[in-house]
Amino acid sequence: MTLHLVSDKPSVIGVLDLQGGVHEHLEHLEQLGVSYKRVKHPSDFADLAGLIIPGGESSCLSRLLNIFEIKNVILEAHRKGMKIWGTCAGAILLAREVVGETPCLDLIDIKIERNGFGSQLDSFVSEALIPAVSAQPVPLTFIRAPKITDAGREVNILLRIDDYIAAAESENILVTVFHPELTGCLALHRYFAIKCGLKPAANSHNCIDPLWKSSSWTKHAGIA
Ligand code: GLN
């Protein structure tokens, strides 16, 4: 009889490598000390613990999912247990309802409105406490972000601001309308890794590379 001492539980997070902020997510996962890889071909999705769909342009991403023939591959991997985190455009792809448009993956019961804050020039940075995610305030970067305007009863709202939901999750899906990968903070990547059943390195802390502050996005909330 052979004893298998090595667990065959999936232990890798894939970052969808079609368009958008791929590299920045990979870098955050590297800092967190979890295994990761770029994914774009059907065979890449076997045995992923989790998948990150980065921000970018949701209309472009949804076309590329069809061109690369991976939409059904993602749905199937999700059915088998792969968790998914969508940031910004990624959240739009995961939504059940997209205002004025046909939904793409339809994996979480949220209603989302593209470009809910206006144009690219209305992009801004801010911060907020997300108690489920971190004891420290988390920096938030909104780039031509969508607004989540409604969520079903089984969806857990992680962060609500004014009239919209900025972060939410179901058992297997996490959505944020902002971009944690464009800040020096690892808190949401850590949160997702743990949701995927992985153990981030004990010595990886949540923050904060001060260089990110100077290279941050356009408007600082509260500054005229
Ligand atoms: N506005 C983009 C869209 O509708 C999303 C922007 C982003 O991902 N930063 O797809």
List descriptors.
224 residues, alpha/beta, Rossmann fold, 7-stranded mixed β-sheet, 6 helices, 13 strands, 28% strand
Write a structural description.
- This protein has 224 residues and is of the alpha/beta class.
- It is 22% helix and 28% strand.
- It is built from six helices and 13 strands.
- Mean pLDDT is 90; it is low at 217-224.
- The site of glutamine (GLN) has 11 residues, from helix 4.
List the helices and strands and how they pair.
Elements: E1 12-16, H1 22-32, E2 35-39, E3 50-53, H2 58-67, H3 71-79, E4 83-87, H4 89-94, E5 95-98, E6 108-113, E7 124-128, E8 138-142, E9 147-151, E10 156-161, E11 164-169, E12 173-176, H5 187-195, H6 211-214, E13 219-220
Parallel strand pairs: 1-2, 1-3, 3-4, 4-12, 5-6, 7-13
Antiparallel strand pairs: 6-9, 7-8, 10-11, 11-12
The structure holds glutamine.
